[in-house]
Amino acid sequence: MFKRPLSDYNEFQKVLNQAQNIVALTGAGVSAESGIPVFRGPGGLWRTHRATDLATPQAFKANPALVWEFYHYRREVAFNSQPNKAHIALAKYEKICQEQGRKFSVITQNVDGLHKRAGSKNVLELHGCLQQVICTKCKIIEMNVNNPICEALRGRGFGIIDPSKKDQDLPIIQVKELPKCSKCQALVRPYIVWFGENLDPDVLDNARELVETCDLCLVIGTSSVVYPAAMFAPTVAERGKPVAEFNLSEDPFDEEFSFHFSGPCGTTLPKALGIDL
Ligand code: OAD
């Protein structure tokens, strides 16, 4: 018999107020209301693009300019976006918890940096971030928020996403024009975990520890299909701890979740956390 999670805000707040170690696991849906496209579903990036063409080490080796055009586009969108009410509610709730001696952490699959820009402090970025680059040779990781990151990428990449903006007449970008390491001058790549790559082991260890110890998990705007993040919330539920899901979808991802709040999380999350915005 299917056990339907509750969608009662008062009941959720009773659980929320008792929790001492809260983890919010977020995905692309938390940034959708900031105008950043999600990956799957209507308007999703992976509907028009095979992830393997753009987000794998093999793709970067075969065509670093194309991959950089795609990431230049994503940097441009992210850098020009603002945190929305869901990001802000999470940051404000973290501050409340800190004042009360309770722990509140965000584990995000997003690379847009919007949680930190909203003011969240305890943030684990599982899949890297668009603000950093890593050298293909000396492996140094550097912060780089220059936009464009190099002159050759100015205005590029939009045709990959929107065929009406085809940039097919533009000259092919040479590898020597792409972003370089400030230390050894070799080619750098976005500091993003691509398909087929492992997560940073320290970040993964920290995330696992939170998943193993939290007493409430909020799972917000993720389709929960990419591992290991996909198993985090079900793992919390298996430990018998409450999980509250916030998603546009009407249906809960897992019948073991305690709460499911359907709708845009820019509305549902501030209401659930009791944050007036
Ligand atoms: P997806 O695009 O797979 O899923 C987005 C989820 O957010 C869906 O379940 C939507 O229903 C939900 N959603 C959309 N708008 C929402 C809103 N306003 N409020 C609440 N929910 C909303 O994104 P992720 O689950 O984050 O990895 O995808 C996981 C990973 O797959 C990404 O980190 C990326 C991608 O391939 C890498 O690139 C390594």
UniProtKB/TrEMBL annotation:
Q: Which GO terms describe its molecular function?
A: histone deacetylase activity, NAD-dependent; NAD+ binding; protein-malonyllysine demalonylase activity; protein-succinyllysine desuccinylase activity; zinc ion binding
What GO terms fall under cellular component here? mitochondrion; nucleus
**Could you tell me which species this protein originates from?**
Tenebrio molitor (Yellow mealworm beetle)
Q: Which reaction does it catalyse?
A: N(6)-malonyl-L-lysyl-[protein] + NAD(+) + H2O = 2''-O-malonyl-ADP-D-ribose + nicotinamide + L-lysyl-[protein]; N(6)-glutaryl-L-lysyl-[protein] + NAD(+) + H2O = 2''-O-glutaryl-ADP-D-ribose + nicotinamide + L-lysyl-[protein]; N(6)-succinyl-L-lysyl-[protein] + NAD(+) + H2O = 2''-O-succinyl-ADP-D-ribose + nicotinamide + L-lysyl-[protein]
Protein name (Swiss-Prot/TrEMBL): NAD-dependent protein deacylase
- Please tell me where Zn(2+) binds in this chain: 135, 138, 181, 184
**What does the sequence similarity comment in the record state about its family?**
Belongs to the sirtuin family. Class III subfamily.
| Enzyme Commission number(s) of this protein | 2.3.1.-
Q: What class of enzyme is it?
A: transferase
**PROSITE patterns linked:** SIRTUIN
Query: Where, by residue number, is the active site?
Result: 127 (proton acceptor)
Classify the source by domain of life: Eukaryota
Compartmental location: Mitochondrion
